[in-house]
Model the fold of this input.
Amino acid sequence: MKTSRMKAVLILGTGLLLPVLADRPARAQWAVYDGANHVENVLIAARELQQVNQEAQSLLNEATMLANQARNLASLPYSTLAPLEQSIAQTQQLLGQAQGMTYSTTSIDQAFSGTYPAAPARDGCQRLYRPARQGG
Done:
């Protein structure tokens, strides 16, 4: 009888202490290491570093190109300036002639309306063309 009573007390004591002990926060004993995730992160970092290197090389090439262009411009003789100025003057003269050839849009519109009278459209807009005749 004493052993069954001891078992009952032990079970009862364990049942009372178990919820109290289970309520404590858990503590990790070892850090978890995910090798696949680590490798993936290293590969991503390597790709980004490669992109940065390519961008730096591109900027270096562009700077070299600009320096070469500056050298070429500095080495141009002043004799090339006169033909460029003459070309600019001709362009300005042609622009002046083009401005003198402006047309009166109202007179063109009146002539067009006289030749092609506008038929009223259903949606309130004017038609600028004559519809094709049906039946021949």
Notes: The chain has four helices and no strands.
